[in-house]
Amino acid sequence: MIQFKALLIKELKEAFRDKRALMVALSMGLLMPVFIMVFSKFAINEAVDNPPIYVKITGAEYAPKLMKSFTDNNILPFAEVPEDKKRQWDEYNVELIIPDNFADNLREGHPIDLILRADYSEKSLNAPIRRIKDEVRQHSLSIGYKRLLVRGIDVKLLRPINLQEQDTSAPTSNAVIITLMLGLYLMMGAFVSGQSISVDSSAGERERNVLELLLCQPVETYKIVLAKLICSSLIATISVTLMLSLTTVSVSFVDLAKIGATFSLDVSTFIALLMLLIPLCFLASSLQLFFAFQAKSFKEAQSTVAMLIMVPAMVPLAMMMMDNKPAWVEWAPISAQSILMEDLFKGLPVDWSALLVSTAATLALTAALVVGMSIRLKSEKVIMSLS
């Protein structure tokens, strides 16, 4: 126990002595809440606000009522664009062409072809194009209804069935943007935050010949591995706790009422999230140490470990594409934590049995990696970077 305590103090001193590496480790926890707040504000404004759209309209004089409908919904002709936004909307180049026989075809009841020309692959034009299409569709429907009324036909005949939707989800479920981002970044934070410490305490110490000197001492290899694992996991745990705490504060600056949503983390949810994330921090650090010990150089270790960051991002995305999720994803490491975090953000009660099973599975995998590393460190090939 004395040996393990000495090893742990040595690892902690080295980790906290390098201020630059420590800031890199904690940077995600400090910066990500700010990013989530800014991105959420931007996404909500894009979804809810009705900013002016400037369209190059040809033949506006042939469809005055359609133009009035456009103006009422802040869809304006290009001639009214302010000088500071002229270059931007000129590059967007959204065109609407109205044929000169618009009034004749409308009077005779013939279909009218309007042409909407724009770069449909430009993501920033998705909302303007959608609004123009919705307005044209709405105007077309109103003309159709009026024609039926003139002919003495009740427009209700077109809607024999009305579907009334009743949303049973909790208000917190509507904060989809934040829950998706927060769940993903919390898991990535567990994998990213301890990365620099893990690589430096394994491949870095081997290049500085510190690891060789350490293994020459009469101490069990599993104690060396456990000390390094606890040190890097502690840094990762501090980072995700910081991220979770700051996100709770930063989200309060986002006006979620605009989308009819609420988001808050009470003490019990906060504790449940930490219970999910702390085992993940240990699993991430053990994977990083395992692959860093297998690398032949510090640079190779950095490259190999960097690829592990994609794991917490790929697993939830893969689950989203599954129509029928197999039962094992509810207890397997990473996937189980992802599902449970999503439920917590939706305000659903904690499934303690699933939490305990997934935690046990995560810690069992971590223990297996520790045993594997302890055995591998007894090999000269690993110590001398020959593997």
Mean pLDDT equals: 82
The percent range for strand residues is under 5%
Topology pattern, helix = H, strand = E: HHEHEHEHEHHHHHHHHHHH
| Integer-rounded radius of gyration | 30 Å
The total count of strands amounts to 4
If strands are numbered along the chain, what order do they take across the biggest sheet? 2-1-3-4
Largest beta-sheet characterization:
4 strands, mixed
Distance between the termini: 31 Å
Helix content: 55-70%
Separate helix tally: 16
Principal-axes shape call: elongated
Low-confidence stretches: none
Task: Briefly note the structural class of the backbone.
Answer: mainly alpha
Helices and strands in order, then pairings?
Layout: H1 2-17, H2 19-48, E1 53-58, H3 64-72, E2 75-77, H4 86-92, E3 95-97, H5 102-108, E4 115-117, H6 126-150, H7 176-192, H8 195-207, H9 210-215, H10 221-251, H11 267-294, H12 298-307, H13 310-320, H14 335-345, H15 352-376, H16 380-383
Parallel strand pairs: 1-2, 1-3
Antiparallel strand pairs: 3-4
How would you characterize the overall build of this protein?
The protein is mainly alpha-helical and 387 residues long. It is 65% helix and 4% strand. The protein has 16 helices and four strands. The protein has helices at 2-17, 19-48, 64-72, 86-92, 102-108, 126-150, 176-192, 195-207, 210-215, 221-251, 267-294, 298-307, 310-320, 335-345, 352-376, 380-383; strands at residues 53-58, 75-77, 95-97, 115-117. Strands 2-1-3-4 form a four-stranded mixed β-sheet, covered by helices on one side. β1 (53-58), α3 and β2 form a beta-alpha-beta unit. α7 (176-192) packs antiparallel against α13, α7 runs antiparallel to α14 and α8 (195-207) packs antiparallel against α12. The chain is elongated, with a radius of gyration of 30 Å. The two termini are 31 Å apart. The relative contact order is 0.12. The model has no long low-confidence stretch (mean pLDDT 82).
